[in-house]
Amino acid sequence: MASKQYIWFDGKFVDFGKANVHVLTHSLQYGSGIFEGIRAYRTARGAAVFRLEDHVNRLFNSAKIYDMDLGVTQETVSNAIVSTIRKNGLGECYVRPFSFYNDARIGVNPIGRKISTIIAAIPFGNYFQNKDRGISCKISSWQRINSMVLPPQAKASGNYLNSVLASLEARRAGADEAIMLSGNGYVAEGSGENIFLVNDNKIITPSAESDILLGITRGTIIELARSLGMEVEERNVHREELFTSSEVFFTGTAAEITPITRIDSKRIGRGHIGPIAKMLSDNYSLIVKGENKEFEGWLTYVGK
Questions:
Q1: Which residues are catalytic?
Q2: Where exactly does CATH 3.30.470.10 map onto the chain?
Q3: Most buried of 48, 78, 113, 273 (most Cβ within 10 A)?
Q4: Which CATH class is domain 135-288?
Q5: Is pTM beyond 0.85 here?
Q6: Residue 2: is its pLDDT beyond 70?
Q7: Handedness of CA 235, 164, 40, 280 (dihedral sign)
Q8: Pairing state of beta strands 34-35 and 12-15?
């Protein structure tokens, strides 16, 4: 890692500690920013970004939903992500592209305000401390947002206040993470992760109708599982199915594949990582490290 760290800010690299905005910036006051979470991994060919194009596509889809003209192209953002990783001399890292209204005038309406885009890349390990052993979860009393309230398919800053409330509630109850239900009572997702169940060797995950964010890691696991000959079903999931499943696990860019071993103090399966989650996790690791040629196209190599 380079001794000095930089952030890409509107087309220029600035010192990490000097990437500043005004405290009254619209997106800080009103949560009007959009962002992505992306990982890069060490491979035999150096650092590689996982599913870069898909993440950048989703960033621009979020911009469309919130009617934001970012003033840059997807190619520019993709190239800037690679350049930021290279500039900082990073191997494995977490990348945060963030577009926001960089304007300190008071008022909710964002029309006519400047939009800035930054890209940060930081060293990053496991999101959950107990990732390999499994984590505990609490079903939240806070419902997952829906399209009548805020658009779940946009990865927007303000959407995550919903997640913050659920996460706080879970932590204060002694759990590692929250599981949120949709407005119609079906299982939705974690505070920042998609969720999967295993029943009778079938993998089940909530569908888009459950107000989930269609996670890129979620899509990866669905495609990976099917390539391994496993049946995957996307549908509404009743909360009680969580308790009778042989395995439950989260997926996400930060979480990767994290087994859930307890929900509302009930043991899930045998109370440890299950064979299907482990198999998927092992294969996922091979893919992101460039050791599975079938999915080589998901990697963008950073180079020197």
A1: 155
A2: 6-122
A3: 48
A4: alpha beta
A5: yes
A6: no
A7: negative
A8: unpaired
